[in-house]
Structure formats: C-alpha cells, structure tokens
Amino acid sequence: MNKQLYTAMLELTHNPLYAKVLQSFVRSRASSLLIPGFIKTFQVDMADYLEDPGSYRSLQEFFTRHTLEGTRPVTMLEKTIASPVDGVLTASGSLRGDGHFYVKGVRHSLETMLAVTGAGERYQNGSFAVFYLSPKEYHRIHAPSSGRVLKRWAAGEYSEPVNDMAFLLGRTPLADNYRLMTEMEGEAGRFITAKVGALNVNSVMPSSLQDSFEKGEEMAAFGFGSSVVLLYDRPDVRWKKEAGTFVRQGEAIAVEGQS
Predict the structure, then answer these.
(1) In the record, what terms sit under GO molecular function (predicted)?
(2) How far is 218 from 225, CA to CA, in rounded Å?
C-alpha cells in the first residue's frame, strides 16, 4: 500500500460521522452476530473468560470481556513491575534524555504524547515500555505498580492504526492518537500509564476514578485493540522481556533498581 492511499484511508477514519457510525454499530445487538466469526477467524481461546460466547449482546461487550478469576495471577515479588495488559511488548528501554523514545525506528516526542508543556521533563531520563493489543486480546488495563493517582488527562481526538504500516510510513500514532493518561506515584517512583486508542474507536473507558490503585488492579478497558505506553521517571528499570514477546497481564516484566 503506498503512502498516498494509506493517508487517504486515514483521512476517512477522521470523519466524525464515520467514527460515530462505527461506534454505534459495535455497541448494537446486530454486531453480536459477528462474534462467532470473529472468534473463529482470530482463533480466540475462550477458556480464560467468564462469560459464554453466546451471552455477549454486542461486539463492545465481547471486546471488554472479563477473565476468570485466577487466570491472570499478578506478580507480588518485591520491586517488580507487572504487565498492565495481554499483548506484545513492542519496545522497551531507557529514554535518551532528549525527550523522545523510539518505536520500530520512529521517534516519538514525550511532550507531544503527554500534551502538557513540561510534563515530559521528569521522564526524559527514565524508562519506557510499549505494548500492542490485537483485537483478539483481553482488553482490560491494570496498574503495573501500586501508587496514588496524581493526575488524569486526555489528549487527541481521532485514532489511526498502531501497526507496522503506520511506523513504516513514519507516522507517530502513540503520540498523536486519542489517549488517556494516568500519572501515579508509589514505591516505584512516578509513572504514567498511557492508554492509546485504536483505529476509529476512541473508547478508552476508565473502570474507576479512585485515588489509588494496587498493582494488578483494573484501571480501564479498551473498546478495540489498542496500545499502552508505560513511563517511569527512574532510569534503573531493568526490562526482563525482549521486544516482540507476548506477555500476559500480571506477569513480571521488569525489576526496579537494578542495572
């Protein structure tokens, strides 16, 4: 697909009417007719989920399905960071001190992503990780570390795909798409969990607006496959997984304070 065609398709998705129609459909009862085909096409393993596949009244309900208790144990080892989602670890590492991070060779601006002047300064020498959730994955987001909430804010209006084609063409969807950020502070230091919307469906739904979260506690849900960016203000986070690794929500992905 050439750049001009891809760009033209993205402009269509930015049309408010188009987005509204799509959102209405995925929340409708009619959309539930697509669920059996979706499960088969994407080979979704339903053994981990609470509800029977026939009980979902819409694609939205299916995308935000709950897991069975005990299927996502949360690491309780001291100084560990837990994966906030089921997904592929796209990138992780240390930030370079220049206010940018790199995903698949594309430079993303912290200040642009956070959309608040000066907000990235605290994190520019810290650590980051990016997770991609395909449409088939568990779509709920959980706290990677325990802490109290300092701030919540949203940025961006529309969303485009967070996929290889976008990065190949040099686009920066993680910094430009609709996104909902939560900044927290705890024993791990300060950290931000940025929930980035996917193509067309900007539904990042907070599960709770409570003042603090324990590690592994549910924070929000996606209405479609999306991405999560973690930022820690400390530079000594050691990521335990290689880029391209599939991780499950709750498993240990990093250790604080070790080189």
Answers:
(1) phosphatidylserine decarboxylase activity
(2) 17
Length of the chain: 259
3-class secondary structure, 207? coil
CA distance linking residue 44 with residue 47, whole number of Å:
9
pLDDT digits (tens, 9 = 90+) for 74-90: 999 999 999 999 999 99
The tokens for 186 are 């705890």
- Residues labelled catalytic: 86, 142, 226
- Chain segment 203-234, per-residue pLDDT in tens: 788 898 999 999 999 999 987 668 899 999 99
Torsion angle in degrees (nearest 10) through CA of 80, 85, 89, 92: -50
Read off the tokens for 180: 């909902």
User: Under a CB-based contact definition with an 8 Å cutoff, are residues 175 and 103 in contact?
Assistant: no
- At 118, give phi and psi (nearest 5°): 85, -10
Where in the chain are the domains? 3-63, 80-255
Alpha helices in 27-68 (DSSP H): 35-41, 59-63
Q: Which residue's structure tokens are 């304070």?
A: 257
Q: How much of the chain is in helix, strand and coil states, percent to nearest 5?
A: 25, 30, 45
Angle between the N-to-C axes of helices 16-26 and 3-13, in degrees from 0 to 180, rounded to the nearest 10: 70
